[in-house]
Q: What sequence folds into this?
């Protein structure tokens, strides 16, 4: 029991240290900070240079399903009073901010906001915004706006599907530069925007906020363990299928995968 208590205390101290090192560029922290409507509103107002923008609702870690029924988790999904939809993602790795990822997120939003039989004119205007730690598009600009254009005329296509890349490397004296400075801070005392500093301070210094972040880390650890267990189960099932000596039911019993999952693995292996 003494050792168990020591392990729990060590884990608590590790969580506290990890919380203190978090920045808004870390998605698990960014999600919690910008679940707050006022913080999300400030974020979008600065990026889009629209002080009149008003957020009606916002969700962190919001899951949407694609046409195959697989869930995709978005960092932030917000809707303004005019019905415009905003997906904001933070990416510390260039690999997570590829052009086709932006296209995928945009199409996923469209698929989830329409109902069968809806007129295409009812599609909401959408913004997919990537805030990247590195200059992914490598032109040295603070922001990149991507919209479809008619190549022959150079005019906008007008489908109201917008993609933006924000380069967090540029931390100048502009409103956007100061926002990117705040995204890179570990300390609330160093931040420019009071509303963001207060929210960061809550999660890093106040007991309730620290407890919330500790639960977030515990959930991340559980999900990682579940993912590892499933990957191990799939590997076991695949090896047994290759051996060719076991029925689907036997493989299911040993791997803890369902019979249908084992069948699907076998079909994909032999396709």
A:
């Amino acid at each position: 029991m003494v050792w168990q208590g020591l392990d729990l205390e060590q884990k608590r101290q590790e969580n506290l240290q990890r919380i203190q090192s978090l920045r808004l560029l870390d998605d698990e922290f960014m999600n919690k900070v910008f679940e707050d409507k006022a913080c999300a509103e400030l974020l979008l107002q600065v990026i889009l240079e629209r002080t009149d923008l008003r957020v009606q609702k916002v969700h962190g870690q919001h899951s949407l399903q694609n046409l195959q029924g697989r869930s995709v988790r978005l960092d932030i999904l917000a809707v303004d009073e005019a019905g415009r939809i905003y997906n904001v993602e933070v990416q510390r790795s260039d690999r997570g901010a590829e052009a086709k990822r932006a296209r995928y997120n945009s199409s996923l939003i469209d698929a989830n906001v329409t109902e069968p039989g809806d007129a295409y004119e009812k599609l909401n205007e959408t913004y997919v915004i990537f805030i990247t730690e590195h200059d992914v598009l490598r032109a040295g600009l603070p922001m990149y706006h991507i919209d479809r254009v008619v190549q022959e005329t150079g005019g906008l296509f007008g489908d109201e599907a917008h993609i933006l890349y924000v380069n967090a490397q540029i931390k100048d004296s502009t409103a956007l530069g100061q926002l990117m400075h705040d995204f890179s801070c570990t300390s609330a005392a160093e931040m420019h925007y009071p509303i963001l500093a207060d929210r960061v301070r809550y999660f890093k210094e106040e007991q309730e906020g620290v407890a919330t972040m500790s639960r977030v880390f515990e959930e991340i650890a559980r999900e990682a363990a579940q993912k590892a267990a499933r990957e191990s189960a799939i590997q076991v099932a695949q090896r047994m299928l290759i051996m060719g000596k076991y029925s689907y039911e036997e493989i299911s019993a040993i791997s803890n995968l369902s019979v249908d999952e084992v069948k699907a693995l076998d079909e994909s292996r032999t396709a």
About this structure: The radius of gyration is 23 Å. The longest strand covers residues 55-65.
